[in-house]
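re: ur question from yesterday

yeah so i grabbed the chain u mentioned. its 345 aa long if i counted rite. heres the sequnce exactly as i have it in my notes:
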Amino acid sequence: MATTIEMVLSVVGILIAAALFTNSIEMLGDRMNLGQGAVGSVLAAVGTALPETMIPIVAILGALIVGGDPSASGEIGVGAILGAPFLLATLAAFVVGAAAIGYKGRRETGTELDVDKATVRRDMVFFFICFAVAAGVGVVGSFFAVPLWLKVAVAVGLVAAYVIHVVQTIRAGGDALEEVPDDLTLWPESRFGEAPTWAVVVQVLGSLVVMALGAHYFVEAVKSGSEALGIPAGLIALVLAPLATELPEKFNSVIWLRDNKDTLAIGNITGAMVFQSTVPVSLGLAFTPWSLDALNALSAVLALVGGAIIIAMLLSKGGLRAHFLLGGGVLYAIFLGAAIYQLAL
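ran it thru and got these structure tokens back, copy pasting raw so excuse formatting
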């Protein structure tokens, strides 16, 4: 009972924080004269990726610094690292498609997503290349010993690629932000006047702290319940941890889709995919054996398939369509079926 209450309260905290973050990050991006692409793909994506990124950091580096079982810590860390991009490329895509269909009556473009194709395409190409390289090293590592220097070199290359991506996205900018919120939620203009920039920054940082705490307690609650059922730690990290900590991305995107801000909605997810396929992955490459078992490898392959589907739509004349994004749910279901089958053996 206590675990269930902790889980519910943490989810409520994450959703409230996500709404506060959406409100403040748009205002901050406007004041920094950033376009929709930069706000969605860099600021929003990295900000909401912080909770799930903390899981592998704590699991891997915590074991190295304070001691503990490096094998179990590495298993949890690798699962969390792979789980985030997998969920984004599959279940998050499904949620975006379902939201666009659900809001089609109030959306100007109906079930078609009107996005800055250059920004989103740049995100997805970066993701596909970087994650394919990282996953390839992990698959090879399950059969042969990969030299540490090579893994470290790949890790450094991934971080460098992310830096290049950020610079390109900010330079490109994209369309200017439209319909910037009039009020900062925690500083209503009708009572206190126009919110100063420091108040906007405080709301951004405060909402991130609440999201991180909510994600932490949710994951702890899920782990407690799952361990009681005998579910392996790596599978918990791969499936349940990102399901909780990726919730802010999905909720922010639903809000933006409802308000016809499709570039922000999609960029928030694709930008997070770039971040999750480079920075956390580099941590796994450098500090774990990075040898992918069958389920880990399957999650990586399905993430790449989901990414390839989005890239194909971006290259087509039709663009992103909600009904095709629903296919991400099928990919996620395939993985869950494989995981259940393995647990039943």
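noticed a couple things. The domain at 2-344 is CATH 1.20.1420.30 (A middle domain of Talin 1). also The chain has one domain: 2-344.
anyway ttyl
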